[in-house]
C-alpha cells in the first residue's frame, strides 16, 4: 500500500532550462542529477518544499521519453508512489489483474528499486512504485 | 514558496469507476466528493497514504476537463502545490513574468483558495497553487 506520492515525473526538452524555470517559479532545488544510458534519459530530482519533481530529458528521439515528447510535448509524464516493498505491490497488482510494465522491480535512479504500472491499468496514468526493497 | 505537492489532478471519464480502480490499485480512500457546476466538473479527493489524488470527471463535453479528455484522453491533468498564501505566490510569479490563468485567487473545491498557472510558464505542466489564504 503506497505511503504517498514520491515524485511527479515531468518530461522536458532541455534539462538545464527546466531546472532554472522550476527554481524561479517553485523555489525548487536540485537534489540529484543522473544520466541513465540504458533508459535513454538524463534526470534531475528536484525538491519543492517537502515534495519532489523529477525532470526527465531524453538522450535522443528514439527513447521512451523522446517518443513521449514527440507525441505529446513536454509535460507530466508519470506519478510515483513510495512503497515499503515494490515486489509486494507488484504481487498485489497482479492479483488484481492489473497490467504491469515491469513484472519485477528493477534498479532505478538514485539507488532505488522501481517498477512501472501500465497506464491501461490506471485509466491513463503511468504510475511507478518506488521503494528500498 | 510551495510547501510541497498538495495533490495530483487526474482527468477521468467515469468518476465511480476511477474511485473503485484507485481503491483496488493504490488503497485510495475518498476524502471529499463535490460537484462544481461553474467549473463543469465532479471531483473526488482521494487519500493515497499521506498524499492526495484528485479525480476530475467533466459534467459535459464543452467544459475544460471535457475538452481535455477529447484532446488527450484520460490521464494526469495538473499538479497542485500547497502554499501558505496564494496571493503572495501569484505576485511572485507575476514578478517573474510567468503567464497566469488566474490573476487572483478564487474559491476552489473543498473550501480552499486556488489559482492556476499557465502551462506555457512551466514547460507544459498545468500547475495550481492551493492554500487557505
SSE order and pairing:
The structure is a homodimer of 133-residue chains.
Chain A lengths: L3 E8 L3 H12 L2 E8 L4 E8 L2 E8 L5 H9 L2 E8 L3 H10 L10 E2 L5 E5 L1 H4 L4 E5 L2
Parallel strand pairs in A: 1-4, 5-8
Antiparallel strand pairs in A: 1-5, 2-3, 3-4, 6-7, 7-8
Which range best describes the helical content of chain A: under 10%, 10-25%, 25-40%, 40-55%, 55-70% or over 70%? 25-40%
In terms of quaternary structure, the protein is homodimer
Compute the average pLDDT of chain A: 95
Query: Beta-strand percentage of chain A?
Result: 35-45%
The major β-sheet of chain A equals:
8 strands, mixed
Following the backbone from N to C, one meets helices and strands of chain A in this order, namely EHEEEHEHEEHE
Q: Pick out the low-confidence regions of chain A.
A: none
Shape of chain A: globular
**In DSSP terms, counting alpha (H) and pi (I) runs of 4 or more, how many helices of chain A?**
4
Radius of gyration of chain A: 15 Å
Word description of this protein:
The structure is a homodimer of 133-residue chains. Chain A is α+β, with helices and mostly antiparallel strands. Helices cover 26% and strands 39% of the residues of chain A. Chain A contains four helices and eight strands. In chain A, strands 2-3-4-1-5-8-7-6 form an eight-stranded mixed beta sheet. In chain A, strand 2 and strand 3 form a beta hairpin. Chains A and B meet through strand 1, helix 1, strand 5 and helix 4 of A and strand 1, helix 1, strand 5 and helix 4 of B.
Concise structural overview:
Chain A is 26% helix and 39% strand. Chain A has 133 residues and is of the alpha+beta class. Chain A contains four helices and eight strands.
Amino acid at each position: 500500500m503506497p505511503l504517498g506520492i514520491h515524485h511527479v515525473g515531468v518530461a522536458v526538452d532541455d534539462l538545464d532550462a527546466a531546472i532554472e524555470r522550476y527554481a524561479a517559479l517553485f523555489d525548487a532545488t536540485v537534489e540529484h542529477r543522473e544520466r541513465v544510458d540504458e533508459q535513454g534519459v538524463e534526470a534531475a530530482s528536484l525538491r519543492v518544499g517537502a515534495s519532489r519533481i523529477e525532470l526527465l530529458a531524453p538522450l535522443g528521439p528514439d527513447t521512451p521519453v523522446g517518443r513521449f515528447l514527440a507525441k505529446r510535448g513536454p509535460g507530466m509524464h508519470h506519478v510515483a508512489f513510495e512503497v515499503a516493498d515494490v515486489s509486494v505491490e507488484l504481487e498485489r497488482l497482479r492479483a488484481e489483474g492489473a497490467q504491469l510494465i515491469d513484472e519485477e522491480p528493477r534498479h532505478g535512479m538514485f539507488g532505488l528499486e522501481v517498477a512501472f504500472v501500465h497506464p491501461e491499468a490506471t485509466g491513463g496514468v503511468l504510475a511507478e512504485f518506488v521503494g528500498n526493497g
